[in-house]
Amino acid sequence: MFGINIIGTGSYTPKLTVTNDDMSKIVDTNDEWISTRTGIKLRCLNDGEATWYMGAKAAEKAIAAAGISPEDIGLIIDSTVTGDFYTPSCACVIQDHLGAVNAAAFDINAACSGFVYGLDTAKRFLQTDDGLKYVLVISNEILSRFVDYTDRSTCVLFGDGAGAVVVERSEKLYSSYLFSDGSGAKVLYAKKMFPQHPFRTSDAVDYGEDFTKEDQFLFQDGKEVYKFATKALPTASKAAADKIGLALNDIDWFVPHQANIRIIETAAKNLDIPMSRFIINLDKHGNTSSASMPVAFDEAVSDGRIKKGQKVCFVGFGAGLTMGAVIVEY
Ligand code: UT7
Fold it and tell me: For ligand 1, is residue 318 a contact (CB within 6 Å)?
């Protein structure tokens, strides 16, 4: 089977940590509501670092752990919805910082599912390009760029962070499943800057009746996203496992997107997998969008929970709506 070998992991989260009690000072909320409805206790929030910088820090650790040189990397894929620039890509800025002078570099946007989309893209590049040896996959996000800190239903959920992995080709077990449903775009979105040319006669853009929020802060229909998420985690994991005839019970670890503990508990029940096989860190980080899976993975590899040879299922869902799972042997 054509698969990938993850040879290095790294993560970076801002030093500034904000507790639920801190959040209760800026919006009408409390630790009890946030803890019981989401499982979140803390989130790290950006305090001046650029998105690319956080990604580069995570990447430096992943490259060091892999024991390779930046020049050995042939491709950099960066998943982000919160890049610093419309252009260039975060991946190109990170490439320069790392000195990865032999790499092609580009960004992808699959929202919170971005890490699995990036990992699967890396695998497909490795499979079709014999000259490519190492791919660096990074997910870096500063959700606090467009979260509305007057909206208690969203601002308590999100954090900032970055995770990265270095992968090479291997004969190890591999499967993936990716799916998107654009009809759900309207339940989770944030608009970009409006056009600024001097000839405009309107101050805004007509996005159509689906995207009516007038400002550029994040809009989330929490209940609709919740419904999608509780189905997405089991659907994507099962679909990826079924493709290679793997029993879900044979997967040692599930690394899910860290949005809400209740979503993960519902998925675990649905899959009949004990919660002890799910890597959870949302209590410390909140929802860091596409960075959540690689940060959780790096923490679990670093503290020895996830060991070489074990089977790991990364599974995510997010705006788009998107979902996806990648099963690898670590
Ligand atoms: O990665 C992106 C994916 N996003 C997600 O996965 C989010 C999915 N959705 C969720 O996780 C949940 O829907 C939320 C955590 C966003 C909300 O939880 P919920 O149990 O669905 O709460 P709700 O929206 O039904 O609100 C219940 C009550 C409301 O008050 P009333 O109308 O019953 O009086 C809200 O106004 O809780 C209120 N509420 C809050 N109260 C205290 C909403 N946010 C807060 C808050 N603190 N932060």
Answer: yes
